[in-house]
């Protein structure tokens, strides 16, 4: 079975069965839990801190002691709404509900969550590849404590004893339920990247997958290309990294295709990703699933943020990645899905790029430099006008691409103007007769290669073009303009045919 | 002993003015407890040492020229589902064995701050589930008027403590009548305030949307005094009402002239003992004599109150009581796996009635049954609120029996849970509506046991309710007066 990364029919990705050659589509919906970056917990004043001594950030409320009552943290609502609005959700009047089940890491043996009336509904998230992934809801709930099992296999079954740390109990979470609009493992990873960027931009969460402040479950199903009904899905848990996410989706899709092609049915169930074994294993099946007996939390009152509050959140919303890509694409004349646009925003260099373009720099060239030559530190300190000047010098032929790269690196470290640096380095435009002399000399030195270059197939020619260009660049100490070299080689080839 | 004043108002006044020492008052009450609580079993715990320290502190403050507060030196009994810092709080359940709360309930803080002397923790039906205090893991409380009879419940210990003179005032909690019904059966005053008027922080939950803390006392004025002390907004309880505390003592002398009082038709006929109904009519006459206009009013949905209550309250209880799982505090019965330990602990720790209600509530919330049971009960609750609204368009107050009968004998209703549940038929609708109501003693039944009549008011209608209560108190026939 092969997994193609190439889109077909626009935006669909497929799994091609090795046995039948049939094409299958992967359908993924992600559920993301993220801890909100508030100073205190959801319903009490205990610090919301990761990694403290066990059971030090606790009080009667987050320990669920008899008689204690929850009081909603206003800042949780603020951050949840900020995230919701960033995901283009409607903020609705909402209520809290109790999700009832027994587990020792849950102090009250119910989790306060939102069920049928969540705070944020019906939004979307635009991926850099142009896909719009629907967001069904993003609701508030409390985190549980953390169990550690001693002895046995480290799992609860067979453990000698278990320890519970309730520092995390009552930490505010938002669960973001995405619609099944994702079609590829890589796209799932991109979705998480994008969501993480939004969480960071809005200040809603520090979104650290490795510390567990961002946790992902993946609902995976497959269907034959062209089918419109969704297949039976499995929910994959225990995905602790983006790598696991991608691998688990791919494994699970293959597993499901194999089953379906041998005439079996998919059982709807929860499965756990085993990173070591590289496979998913069955957990609880839906038939044995708990009945959570949801009902409205009577210790809390309904939540109805005012229109003013929502408007204030909208007004204070920082520019979000998709909007930043859009602005950059417009300014540069590139499409929003262009890699250089995506990367510029990812590296937080879109403001620099926009300012440089505004200062007269060519958009495409500016973004090419951002993508290829500005991955290191200090890039954001570049003076936009000087960056624009560099690009103009380059496009005017005063600097070759290689020289421009060198000058740019120097600009980042020294902060000096490009013309000053170029003069210091002795970079000046090479005149064309000088270049012609050097090229002709090198052709004469390698007659066999030149003959191959002139008559060989595309592959051969491409290889030899590199061979000659390298020699020319070496001979000119990188001062030759790559485009001029290519043009010259091509015209000499045409002459010799 | 008889020379000491008997009401909280009198005691506080005497202590504040330095005429009487709080310690003397306390010792007098401790002596009464010593003499008779072996028989009554009102207390799970008598906090003699803590109470002496508190009384001594009150006396010291008076001596220093300070005012210890409105409840200065008044002995006060606390239902044992109110958390007391460092002092066992049991809910009369074995499952909380050994647990000492690390904090005081808001009401405990308030009464302490007002100078009251907490004298002990009173017995209750386990987790406040019951109407006779027979469901206590520590044995039943006996009715001080006739120890062969129940004191009512679930706040039976708090009612009996006041009726027996162990304390002039006490606190109970009322989820479906648990203050008013025992008040009626013991012949004392009991008040269930508007939902949200008194903070529930530190009240161990039975059914969160119905629970409310309130006072017991021998006089209407003492209940007004205690309610004023415990009412008010609390930032720790999200359902707490953010409104000024009403002046209740001030409203007592205002009479009922011009008030419109409705007798609720549905609660005067079938299921109500004739002697009790007769006392209610007599009470209506007393209000009429005070200038009130009496009418009959139908509140049809109250007929479904009991059914709705016995779905909503157990549903919430099934969730509220989940935390008693043996993991963190209280009893633990060891077993090979966590789930088996949970089950073994709960099996051993909970009594029969608590288990019955957990089962009932779990069932009512289960997938596939939710709409038919819990969902429907919520709709009935809405109907009850609407019917009351309609009634209060024409009436300022409503008048009903508190309990369908006077105090019954031990064991009379334990075999048949439904007949026990019917005890709450008059009190439950108020809890479902979130309204205030109170029981005022009004003579005796044909058996010579006390009868309580119930006054109901719309939300925050306490001042009007207390005006009528004071009139009824003044007009109440003596317990031994032959009823006609």
In words, what does this structure look like?
The complex is a heterodimer of chains A (497) and B (484). Chain A is α+β, with helices and mostly antiparallel strands. Chain A contains 15 helices and 16 strands. In chain A, strands 1, 2, 3, 4, 7, 8, 11, 12, 13, 14 and 15 form an eleven-stranded mixed β-sheet that branches. In chain A, strand 14 and strand 15 form a beta hairpin. In chain A, helix 2 runs antiparallel to helix 3 and helix 12 packs across helix 15. The longest helix of chain A has 20 residues. Chain A starts with a strand and ends with a helix. The N terminus of chain A is likely disordered. By secondary structure, chain B is an alpha/beta fold. Helices cover 38% and strands 13% of the residues of chain B. Chain B is built from 15 helices and eleven strands. Chain B has an eleven-stranded mixed β-sheet, with helices on both faces. In chain B, helix 9 packs across helix 11. Chain B is globular. The model of chain B has no long low-confidence stretch (mean pLDDT 96). At the A-B interface, loops of A face helix 9 and helix 10 of B.
Short description:
The complex is a heterodimer of chains A (497) and B (484). Chain A is α+β, with helices and mostly antiparallel strands. Chain A has 15 helices and 16 strands.
Report the strand count of chain B.
11
Low-confidence stretches of chain B: none
The assigned structural class of chain A equals alpha+beta
Question: C-alpha Rg of chain B, in Å?
Answer: 21 Å
- Tally the beta strands of chain A: 16
Report the principal-axis shape of chain B: globular
Count of DSSP-assigned helices of chain B: 15
Record the SSE blueprint.
The complex is a heterodimer of chains A (497) and B (484).
Chain A: E1 2-3, E2 14-16, E3 23-35, H1 74-86, E4 90-91, E5 97-100, E6 110-113, E7 120-126, E8 132-142, E9 146-150, E10 161-165, E11 172-178, H2 185-202, E12 214-224, E13 234-239, H3 242-261, E14 269-274, E15 279-285, E16 295-296, H4 307-315, H5 321-332, H6 339-346, H7 350-358, H8 363-373, H9 384-395, H10 401-414, H11 418-424, H12 432-445, H13 447-455, H14 458-475, H15 482-496
Parallel strand pairs in A: 13-14
Antiparallel strand pairs in A: 1-2, 2-3, 3-11, 3-12, 4-7, 5-6, 5-16, 7-8, 8-11, 9-10, 12-13, 14-15
Helix pairs in contact in A: 2-3, 5-6, 5-7, 6-8, 7-8, 7-9, 9-10, 12-14, 12-15, 13-14, 14-15
Chain B: H1 8-16, H2 22-40, E1 43-46, H3 48-63, E2 75-79, H4 106-113, E3 117-122, H5 156-163, E4 169-174, H6 180-186, E5 189-192, E6 212-217, H7 220-230, E7 260-264, H8 274-289, E8 293-297, H9 305-320, H10 338-349, H11 352-365, H12 371-394, E9 397-401, H13 417-421, H14 428-433, E10 437-444, E11 450-456, H15 462-475
Parallel strand pairs in B: 2-3, 2-4, 7-8, 7-9
Antiparallel strand pairs in B: 1-3, 4-6, 5-6, 5-10, 9-11, 10-11
